[in-house]
Amino acid sequence: MLHPITTNHYLMLSAALLLIGTLGVLTRRNIVVVLMSIELILNAVNINLVAMARYWQNLQGQVFAIFVITVAVAEAAIGLGILIALFRNKETVQADEIDLLKW
Fold this sequence. Notes:
Helix Hairpins, 75% helix
């Protein structure tokens, strides 16, 4: 017999994505991996918003999730543009080797 997927399943998936994204941001040095980890964190937030919107039977969480997706797309585009500019100047994508703001 199949069990229905409940809100708890979505919350556990969201918590797992949040954990993986946070570990990726804190432990990785490659800026591309850090940007992907930030996207995982934003997707975890979106899953929470949609799950709670479904649980409370309203659309506000889903609408807010669409706004979060829009901000994530803009962040990815701007972040990759900055990353390309940094790679052209420094020829590396390692976060600890980029010291443009140091005196």
